[in-house]
Amino acid sequence: MLHIALAKGRIARKVMKSLSDGGYQFPDYSDDSRKLIFTDKEGRIRVTLVKSPDVAVYVRRGAADAGIVGKDVLMEDGEEDVYEILDLGIGKCRMAVSGIKGKRDVMNKRILTVASKYPSIARKYFAGRFQPIDIIKLNGSVELAPLVGLSDVIVDIVETGTTLRENGLEAYDYFMDFSARLICNKVSFKMKQDELNQFIQVVKKD
Ligand SMILES: Nc1ncnc2c1ncn2[C@@H]1O[C@H](COP(=O)(O)OP(=O)(O)OP(=O)(O)O)[C@@H](O)[C@H]1O
Ligand SMILES: O=P(O)(O)OC[C@H]1O[C@H](OP(=O)(O)OP(=O)(O)O)[C@H](O)[C@@H]1O
Protein backbone atom coordinates (compact mmCIF):
# COMPACT_ATOMS: atom_id res chain seq x y z
CA MET A 1 0.00 0.00 0.00
CA LEU A 2 1.23 3.50 -0.87
CA HIS A 3 1.22 6.00 2.00
CA ILE A 4 0.61 9.61 0.96
CA ALA A 5 0.77 12.73 3.15
CA LEU A 6 -1.29 15.66 1.86
CA ALA A 7 -1.18 19.27 3.02
CA LYS A 8 -4.63 19.63 4.50
CA GLY A 9 -6.59 22.47 3.02
CA ARG A 10 -6.96 23.41 -0.61
CA ILE A 11 -4.25 20.97 -1.78
CA ALA A 12 -5.85 17.97 -0.07
CA ARG A 13 -9.27 18.91 -1.43
CA LYS A 14 -7.95 19.07 -5.01
CA VAL A 15 -5.93 15.87 -4.77
CA MET A 16 -8.79 13.92 -3.17
CA LYS A 17 -11.01 15.05 -6.06
CA SER A 18 -8.42 13.84 -8.61
CA LEU A 19 -8.14 10.51 -6.80
CA SER A 20 -11.89 10.11 -6.76
CA ASP A 21 -12.10 11.01 -10.49
CA GLY A 22 -9.33 8.45 -11.08
CA GLY A 23 -11.37 5.64 -9.54
CA TYR A 24 -10.08 5.59 -5.96
CA GLN A 25 -12.95 5.43 -3.48
CA PHE A 26 -12.64 6.86 0.03
CA PRO A 27 -16.12 6.25 1.46
CA ASP A 28 -15.48 8.09 4.74
CA TYR A 29 -13.82 11.20 3.19
CA SER A 30 -15.57 14.53 2.81
CA ASP A 31 -14.02 18.01 2.46
CA ASP A 32 -15.27 19.07 5.87
CA SER A 33 -14.53 15.87 7.78
CA ARG A 34 -12.26 16.04 10.86
CA LYS A 35 -10.84 12.57 10.18
CA LEU A 36 -7.09 12.57 9.40
CA ILE A 37 -6.44 9.19 7.83
CA PHE A 38 -8.20 7.47 4.95
CA THR A 39 -7.68 4.18 3.11
CA ASP A 40 -9.27 3.58 -0.26
CA LYS A 41 -11.78 0.75 -0.69
CA GLU A 42 -9.34 -1.52 -2.52
CA GLY A 43 -6.54 -0.94 -0.02
CA ARG A 44 -4.19 0.62 -2.60
CA ILE A 45 -3.58 4.01 -0.97
CA ARG A 46 -3.53 5.40 2.56
CA VAL A 47 -3.87 9.19 2.74
CA THR A 48 -2.97 11.23 5.82
CA LEU A 49 -3.85 14.91 6.15
CA VAL A 50 -1.11 16.99 7.78
CA LYS A 51 -0.20 20.67 8.16
CA SER A 52 1.82 21.91 5.14
CA PRO A 53 5.19 22.35 6.91
CA ASP A 54 4.91 18.78 8.27
CA VAL A 55 4.48 17.02 4.91
CA ALA A 56 8.23 16.79 4.27
CA VAL A 57 8.82 15.57 7.84
CA TYR A 58 6.50 12.57 7.35
CA VAL A 59 8.08 11.80 3.98
CA ARG A 60 11.69 12.21 5.10
CA ARG A 61 11.15 9.86 8.04
CA GLY A 62 9.28 7.28 5.97
CA ALA A 63 5.92 7.67 7.75
CA ALA A 64 4.66 8.53 4.26
CA ASP A 65 6.12 7.25 0.97
CA ALA A 66 5.22 10.47 -0.79
CA GLY A 67 3.61 13.81 -0.08
CA ILE A 68 2.04 16.79 -1.82
CA VAL A 69 2.84 20.30 -0.61
CA GLY A 70 3.34 23.84 -1.95
CA LYS A 71 6.80 24.72 -3.28
CA ASP A 72 6.68 27.87 -1.10
CA VAL A 73 6.63 25.67 2.00
CA LEU A 74 9.42 23.42 0.69
CA MET A 75 11.59 26.45 -0.03
CA GLU A 76 10.94 28.06 3.32
CA ASP A 77 11.63 24.97 5.41
CA GLY A 78 14.30 23.35 3.27
CA GLU A 79 13.72 20.15 1.34
CA GLU A 80 16.75 18.02 2.08
CA ASP A 81 16.65 14.25 2.01
CA VAL A 82 13.52 13.87 -0.11
CA TYR A 83 13.13 13.73 -3.87
CA GLU A 84 10.94 16.33 -5.52
CA ILE A 85 9.55 14.35 -8.42
CA LEU A 86 6.67 16.25 -10.00
CA ASP A 87 5.18 19.71 -10.43
CA LEU A 88 1.43 19.07 -10.17
CA GLY A 89 0.46 22.43 -11.63
CA ILE A 90 -2.17 22.99 -8.93
CA GLY A 91 -2.17 25.53 -6.09
CA LYS A 92 -0.50 28.15 -8.28
CA CYS A 93 0.47 31.38 -6.55
CA ARG A 94 3.22 34.01 -6.46
CA MET A 95 5.40 35.44 -3.71
CA ALA A 96 5.28 39.22 -3.47
CA VAL A 97 6.52 42.13 -1.42
CA SER A 98 3.43 44.20 -0.73
CA GLY A 99 2.47 47.27 1.22
CA ILE A 100 0.00 50.10 1.43
CA LYS A 101 -1.35 51.15 -1.97
CA GLY A 102 0.48 54.16 -3.40
CA LYS A 103 3.20 54.08 -0.72
CA ARG A 104 5.88 52.06 -2.42
CA ASP A 105 8.47 54.73 -1.57
CA VAL A 106 8.63 53.00 1.79
CA MET A 107 10.93 50.49 0.04
CA ASN A 108 13.65 53.17 0.09
CA LYS A 109 13.81 53.22 3.89
CA ARG A 110 17.25 52.43 5.29
CA ILE A 111 16.00 49.56 7.44
CA LEU A 112 12.73 48.06 6.30
CA THR A 113 10.42 46.25 8.73
CA VAL A 114 9.08 43.13 7.02
CA ALA A 115 6.29 40.89 8.32
CA SER A 116 6.02 37.39 6.85
CA LYS A 117 4.99 33.77 7.29
CA TYR A 118 8.10 33.10 5.16
CA PRO A 119 11.04 34.71 7.03
CA SER A 120 13.69 32.69 5.25
CA ILE A 121 12.42 33.52 1.75
CA ALA A 122 12.00 37.19 2.79
CA ARG A 123 15.54 37.37 4.17
CA LYS A 124 17.02 35.94 0.97
CA TYR A 125 15.05 38.35 -1.21
CA PHE A 126 16.23 41.46 0.65
CA ALA A 127 19.79 40.13 1.09
CA GLY A 128 19.92 39.87 -2.71
CA ARG A 129 19.08 43.56 -2.89
CA PHE A 130 21.53 44.50 -0.11
CA GLN A 131 18.56 45.93 1.81
CA PRO A 132 18.83 45.71 5.62
CA ILE A 133 15.61 44.49 7.20
CA ASP A 134 14.01 43.83 10.55
CA ILE A 135 11.94 40.68 10.12
CA ILE A 136 8.77 39.89 12.07
CA LYS A 137 7.57 36.29 11.79
CA LEU A 138 3.78 36.04 11.72
CA ASN A 139 1.56 32.98 11.37
CA GLY A 140 -1.36 34.34 9.36
CA SER A 141 -3.44 37.39 8.39
CA VAL A 142 -0.12 38.99 7.45
CA GLU A 143 -1.90 41.73 5.48
CA LEU A 144 -2.85 43.33 8.79
CA ALA A 145 0.75 44.24 9.66
CA PRO A 146 1.25 47.35 7.46
CA LEU A 147 -2.31 48.51 8.20
CA VAL A 148 -1.72 48.74 11.93
CA GLY A 149 1.90 49.92 11.78
CA LEU A 150 3.48 46.62 12.75
CA SER A 151 5.58 46.53 9.57
CA ASP A 152 6.44 48.63 6.50
CA VAL A 153 5.82 45.79 4.07
CA ILE A 154 4.87 42.12 3.96
CA VAL A 155 6.26 39.16 2.05
CA ASP A 156 3.44 36.71 1.35
CA ILE A 157 1.81 34.63 -1.34
CA VAL A 158 -0.73 36.16 -3.68
CA GLU A 159 -3.18 34.08 -5.66
CA THR A 160 -6.14 36.15 -6.88
CA GLY A 161 -4.99 39.41 -5.24
CA THR A 162 -8.32 39.72 -3.43
CA THR A 163 -6.84 39.86 0.07
CA LEU A 164 -4.46 42.68 -0.92
CA ARG A 165 -7.18 44.60 -2.73
CA GLU A 166 -9.77 44.30 0.02
CA ASN A 167 -7.27 45.65 2.53
CA GLY A 168 -6.00 48.63 0.54
CA LEU A 169 -2.64 47.04 -0.23
CA GLU A 170 -0.76 46.44 -3.49
CA ALA A 171 2.10 44.23 -4.64
CA TYR A 172 5.32 46.25 -5.07
CA ASP A 173 7.25 43.34 -6.55
CA TYR A 174 6.37 39.77 -7.56
CA PHE A 175 9.49 37.68 -7.32
CA MET A 176 8.71 33.92 -7.35
CA ASP A 177 6.10 31.54 -8.77
CA PHE A 178 4.93 28.45 -6.89
CA SER A 179 2.77 25.37 -7.35
CA ALA A 180 2.19 22.10 -5.53
CA ARG A 181 4.91 19.44 -5.74
CA LEU A 182 4.98 15.69 -5.28
CA ILE A 183 7.85 14.73 -3.00
CA CYS A 184 9.02 11.21 -2.33
CA ASN A 185 10.91 9.26 0.31
CA LYS A 186 14.26 8.10 -1.13
CA VAL A 187 13.77 4.44 -0.18
CA SER A 188 10.14 4.35 -1.33
CA PHE A 189 11.26 5.85 -4.66
CA LYS A 190 13.21 2.62 -5.28
CA MET A 191 10.96 0.10 -3.54
CA LYS A 192 7.49 1.30 -4.61
CA GLN A 193 8.14 2.47 -8.17
CA ASP A 194 5.09 0.80 -9.72
CA GLU A 195 2.66 2.02 -7.07
CA LEU A 196 4.12 5.52 -7.34
CA ASN A 197 3.81 5.57 -11.11
CA GLN A 198 0.16 4.52 -10.86
CA PHE A 199 -0.46 7.32 -8.35
CA ILE A 200 1.32 9.87 -10.56
CA GLN A 201 -0.85 8.97 -13.57
CA VAL A 202 -3.92 9.82 -11.51
CA VAL A 203 -2.81 13.06 -9.84
CA LYS A 204 -0.75 14.68 -12.57
CA LYS A 205 -2.45 17.48 -14.48
CA ASP A 206 -2.29 17.12 -18.28
N1 LIG B 1 -4.68 31.83 -1.89
C1 LIG B 1 -3.88 30.92 -1.37
N2 LIG B 1 -3.77 30.81 -0.04
C2 LIG B 1 -3.00 29.87 0.52
N3 LIG B 1 -2.26 28.98 -0.18
C3 LIG B 1 -2.34 29.04 -1.52
C4 LIG B 1 -3.14 30.00 -2.17
N4 LIG B 1 -3.03 29.78 -3.48
C5 LIG B 1 -2.20 28.78 -3.65
N5 LIG B 1 -1.74 28.32 -2.48
C6 LIG B 1 -0.82 27.20 -2.32
O1 LIG B 1 -1.45 26.23 -1.50
C7 LIG B 1 -0.67 25.93 -0.35
C8 LIG B 1 -1.56 25.85 0.86
O2 LIG B 1 -2.39 24.77 0.73
P1 LIG B 1 -2.71 23.91 2.03
O3 LIG B 1 -3.55 22.77 1.55
O4 LIG B 1 -1.46 23.58 2.74
O5 LIG B 1 -3.43 24.91 3.03
P2 LIG B 1 -4.55 26.03 2.96
O6 LIG B 1 -5.45 25.85 1.79
O7 LIG B 1 -3.91 27.37 3.14
O8 LIG B 1 -5.37 25.61 4.25
P3 LIG B 1 -5.05 25.88 5.78
O9 LIG B 1 -4.71 27.36 5.87
O10 LIG B 1 -6.39 25.52 6.38
O11 LIG B 1 -3.95 24.98 6.21
C9 LIG B 1 0.32 27.05 -0.19
O12 LIG B 1 1.51 26.55 0.40
C10 LIG B 1 0.51 27.53 -1.62
O13 LIG B 1 1.53 26.78 -2.24
O1 LIG C 1 -4.48 36.51 -3.34
P1 LIG C 1 -5.54 35.80 -2.59
O2 LIG C 1 -6.36 34.90 -3.46
O3 LIG C 1 -6.40 36.72 -1.77
O4 LIG C 1 -4.81 34.77 -1.59
C1 LIG C 1 -3.74 35.18 -0.79
C2 LIG C 1 -4.04 35.03 0.67
O5 LIG C 1 -4.28 33.66 0.99
C3 LIG C 1 -3.34 33.22 1.97
O6 LIG C 1 -3.85 33.30 3.24
P2 LIG C 1 -4.65 32.10 3.94
O7 LIG C 1 -5.99 31.96 3.30
O8 LIG C 1 -3.81 30.85 3.89
O9 LIG C 1 -4.85 32.64 5.40
P3 LIG C 1 -3.76 33.10 6.50
O10 LIG C 1 -3.38 34.50 6.15
O11 LIG C 1 -4.50 33.07 7.78
O12 LIG C 1 -2.61 32.16 6.45
C4 LIG C 1 -2.17 34.19 1.81
O13 LIG C 1 -1.39 34.25 2.99
C5 LIG C 1 -2.86 35.49 1.49
O14 LIG C 1 -3.31 36.13 2.66
From TrEMBL:
GO terms for biological process: L-histidine biosynthetic process. One of its GO terms (molecular function) is ATP binding. Keywords: Amino-acid biosynthesis, ATP-binding, Cytoplasm, Glycosyltransferase, Histidine biosynthesis, Nucleotide-binding, Transferase. InterPro entries: ATP_PRibTrfase_cat, ATP_PRibTrfase_CS, ATP_PRibTrfase_HisG, ATP_PRibTrfase_HisG_short. Pfam families: HisG. The keyword Transferase applies. Pathway: Amino-acid biosynthesis; L-histidine biosynthesis; L-histidine from 5-phospho-alpha-D-ribose 1-diphosphate: step 1/9. Its EC number is 2.4.2.17. Residues 52-204 form the ATP phosphoribosyltransferase catalytic domain. It is found in: Cytoplasm. PANTHER family: ATP PHOSPHORIBOSYLTRANSFERASE, ATP PHOSPHORIBOSYLTRANSFERASE ATP-PRTASE. HAMAP family: HisG_Short (MF_01018). Catalyzes the condensation of ATP and 5-phosphoribose 1-diphosphate to form N'-(5'-phosphoribosyl)-ATP (PR-ATP). Has a crucial role in the pathway because the rate of histidine biosynthesis seems to be controlled primarily by regulation of HisG enzymatic activity. Belongs to the ATP phosphoribosyltransferase family. Short subfamily. This is ATP phosphoribosyltransferase. It comes from Dialister succinatiphilus YIT 11850. The lineage of its organism: Bacteria, Bacillati, Bacillota, Negativicutes, Veillonellales.
